[in-house]
Amino acid sequence: MSFWSKVRNSILAFTLGSTLFVLGKSFVVPTTKKVPVSSFTFPEKIPLPGWQLQDNDVPTDLLKGRSFQGRGYEYRQKDLNLAIAMHYVPYLHPNETLFRAYDSRLPSSNDPIAIMRHKPETGFYMIGIEEKQAYLRACINPRGPSAITYQQFIQNRYTDDLKFSRFLPVLLGHEPLRDYRCLWTHLSIPVNQGDSNSAYQVLEKAWGFWYDWWHNNFPKRNF
Predict the structure, then answer these.
(1) What's the CA angle centered on 89, arms 221 and 115, to 5 degrees?
(2) This prediction's pTM
(3) Residue 61: phi, psi to the nearest 5?
(4) Taking the CB of residue 50, how many other CB atoms lie within 10 A of it?
(5) What is d(CA 15, CA 18) in angstroms, rounded to the nearest whole number?
(6) Using only C-alpha atoms, what is the Rg of the chain?
């Protein structure tokens, strides 16, 4: 066997062993363990093409009293107001609870008449009407498309987190093998009776810009 063949086989063996070690560790360590995350302060200004920022300190209770970092923004386009509530939820189990609460397919859902939609450029999201407001809700992932069901979220963790490009940072402990953080996003505008389709179109267009900005500026971890 040539020298380079021995080197290549050694590298392959090391890579395989390290990968198995990291995978094994992820399954052995209880999922209830909280991985350290950085504190995060939402920016005061976020550009949204076609809209003017009116307020960046709007009270929000998107998560129904759960104490996670959040911020509300209000934008205006002509005579139309757009409210956007954001919450940063860094742990698996609170996110799992929220996904189940917002899954309209489940009996316990807070959104019994919500509609799930998908766009390739963003991902999955829910739209609906609540208290004369048309809304769009989704979880922006650290990697992968947006999600609105727990199954979609977990699928993203396996398809987008478990990539070879992340192998070294995970092995060195700089990143978790699977990143369970969510930026919960809730956009809403007033809706006239019988005009929900127009309202949905406005929300979906704003959502595209909003998703792109946050997908490129997702909170960084600080280990």
Answers:
(1) 130
(2) 0.76
(3) -130, 45
(4) 12
(5) 5
(6) 20
Query: 95 phi and psi, to 5 degrees?
Result: -65, -40
pLDDT along the chain (223 residues), means of 10: 49 48 47 52 93 87 65 94 93 90 73 85 94 93 91 85 60 66 94 84 97 92 58
Cross-sheet strand order for the sheet of 52-55: 52-55, 69-77, 80-89, 182-190, 133-140, 123-130, 115-119
For residue 14, count other CB atoms closer than 10 A to its CB.
Answer: 10
pLDDT of residue 67: 62
Q: Are 148 and 102 in contact (CB under 8 A)?
A: yes
Quote the tokens at residue 104: 């309209």
Among residues 84, 61, 88, which one has the least CA distance to residue 179?
A: 88
- For the chain, give the DSSP string: --HHHHHHHHHHHHHHHHHHHHHHHHHHS-TTSPPP-------S----TT-EEEES-----TTTT---EEEEEEEEETTEEEEEEEEEE-SHHHHHHHHHHH-TTSTT-S-TT-EEEEETTTEEEEEEEETTEEEEEEEE-SSSSBBSSHHHHHHHIIIIIS-GGGHHHHHTTSS-SS---EEEEEEEEE--TT-HHHHHHHHHHHHHHHHHHHHHSPPPP--
Cα-Cα-Cα-Cα dihedral sign, residues 85, 83, 194, 205: negative
